[in-house]
Design a protein that fits this description.
Elements (H helix, E strand, L loop, with lengths): L62 H34 L6 H4 L3 H24 L5 H19 L7 H15 L1 H7 L5
Protein name: Membrane protein
Keywords: Membrane, Transmembrane, Transmembrane helix
Length: about 190
C-alpha cells in the first residue's frame, strides 16, 4: 500500500510528506482537522464559572452577621441582669424610706430607678426581637439593627460611662457587622 496517493483516505494530510512522521503541519498550511490559527488542545473547553443560587446571594448566614446576632443575645442577658438590679434597687430605696438609718438613700427618687428598669426591659425586648428575626429579616431589619447598635453605643457613653463599656463595644460591633458588605448581602438577599 502506498501512502503517496493523494486520494488515499489512510494517508497523511495533504501538504505533508509521507514517512517523515511529523505531527505538526508545515508553517503556513492548516493541519488536518484543525482550524486555521488554533493550536490543538486537550480536553473540553472550560465551563462558565459556577454561580451561587439566587444570583450570588449567600445561602447561609455570614460569620459577621452571626456574630452580631450572638452579641444581641449577650445584650439581652446583660439587660436581664440590669433590669433585675434596677428593680431591686427601686424596691430597696422604697423600703429604706421607713428606716432612719438610710435617710440619705431615702432621698433618692425611686421613680428614676423604675424608669431605668423599664428602659432596660424595653431594650431587652428590642434586642431579643432583632436577634430572633436575623434569619429571615430583610433590609429594614438591617437598618433597625444598625440604629440599635448605634443607640446602644451612644447610651453606653453618656449615662452609663463606666458600667456601659461592654454595651459600647457590643453596640459598635453590631453596627459594623450589620452595616458591612456581608450584612448587606445577607439582609438584601431575595427570599423565595
Amino acid at each position: 500500500m502506498s501512502f503517496g496517493d493523494p486520494n488515499n483516505p489512510y494517508g497523511p494530510p495533504q501538504g505533508q510528506q509521507p514517512g517523515h512522521g511529523s505531527q505538526q503541519p508545515p508553517q503556513g498550511q492548516p493541519g488536518y482537522g484543525y482550524p486555521q490559527g488554533q493550536q490543538p488542545g486537550y480536553g473540553y473547553p472550560s465551563a462558565p464559572p459556577v454561580q451561587q443560587p439566587y444570583g450570588g446571594a449567600p445561602t447561609t448566614m455570614p460569620g459577621t452577621v452571626s456574630a452580631a446576632r450572638v452579641m444581641l443575645w449577650v445584650i439581652v442577658g446583660l439587660q436581664v441582669i440590669g433590669t433585675v438590679l434596677f428593680a431591686v434597687s427601686a424596691v430597696a430605696v422604697d423600703q429604706a424610706k421607713d428606716d432612719p438609718a438610710f435617710e440619705e438613700l431615702a432621698d433618692y427618687p425611686t421613680g428614676v430607678l423604675w424608669a431605668i428598669a423599664v428602659l432596660a426591659l424595653a431594650w431587652l425586648v428590642w434586642a431579643a426581637v432583632l436577634a430572633v428575626k436575623f434569619k429571615a429579616g430583610g433590609n429594614g431589619l438591617r437598618i433597625t439593627a444598625l440604629v440599635f447598635g448605634i443607640l446602644t453605643a451612644v447610651i453606653a457613653l453618656y449615662p452609663f460611662t463606666v458600667f456601659g463599656i461592654i454595651h459600647l463595644v457590643l453596640g459598635i460591633l453590631i453596627a459594623v457587622f450589620v452595616g458591612n458588605s456581608n450584612g448587606a448581602a445577607w439582609f438584601k438577599r431575595p427570599r423565595y
